[in-house]
Amino acid sequence: MEVIIQTNKEAAAALVARIIAHDLRANPHLVLGLATGSTMERVYRQLVMMHKEQHLDFSLCSTFNLDEYVGLFPSDPNSYRHYMEQHLFQLVNIDPRNTHLPNGMAEDLDGECRRYEALIQRFGGIDLQLVGLGRAGHIGFNEPLSALRSRTRVKALTPTTIKQNATFFGGEEKMPRRAITMGVGTIIEARRCILLATGDSKAAVLAKAVEGPITSMVTASALQLHPRCTVVVDEEAAVQLTEKDYYRWIFANEPEWQDYR
Ligand code: GLP
What pLDDT shows up at residue 110? Predict the structure, then answer.
C-alpha cells in the first residue's frame, strides 16, 4: 500500500483523476471500476474537464460500479446509476452499453449478483478499481463483518451508513435498507486499486484502514492485502496517520510518482 497526502480535497481528487487518465491513455480498452459518494464527485469533474480540454477518450473503455441500492429504479435520483449518468456517463464519450451497475430492481437478486460477477469475468476482470471510504470503514457496501473473501451479494446496511447517506434521501425512513455490492474479494482482485478519502470525518476510520490490523470490522483494511493499492488522501483525512513523513518521502522521491508531483 502507498499513501499519498495532498494539501486539500481538490488536489487529492485531481491526482486520482490524473492516475485514471494515465491508465486510460495507456490502455483505451481499460476496464474501470467506479465508486459513488460525494468524495468522487470531484474526481468525475476533473475527468469531464480532461475529456473536454485534453480529449481524454472514453469511447473504448468499460466500467463496473461497486454497488447499487436494492429497490431503486435506475431513473430514481438517488440510484447510483442516476449518479453516474449525472456526474460522468452523460458528460463524456463513453458507450452506454459499456457501463455496468448491479440491477437493484432484479426479481432474482442472488441471480443478479452472480450475473454481475460473471460479467466482470467476461470483460477480463477490472484493471483499475476506484474505491471510497464509508464512515463504517466500508468499501462498496461491505459493512462490518463482511467476509474478506466475499463476492457480489446483497448486504444489509448498518445504522452508521444509513445515517451517513440519509441526507440524500431526505430522511432515514426513505432510505433503502439493502444494497447489492461487489464483495471484498471481488474488489481486491482488481489489478490496481485506488482508495480516495478526504475530510476530517474520515480521519479515524482511515487510520484504522491503513495502519490498523486487517479486520472484517473495517473492510477497507483488506486493501492492505492488495499488491498494488494507492491511497490518496488530503491533510484533513491524514491527521491520525502515524507514518506521514515516510509516506511523504516516498511520494517526493520514488521515480514512479515523478510525473504526479
Ligand atoms: C457510499 C458508497 C461507498 C462510498 C461511500 C463514501 O456508502 N456505497 O462506496 O465509499 O458512500 O461516501 P462519501 O464520499 O459521500 O463520503
Answer: 98
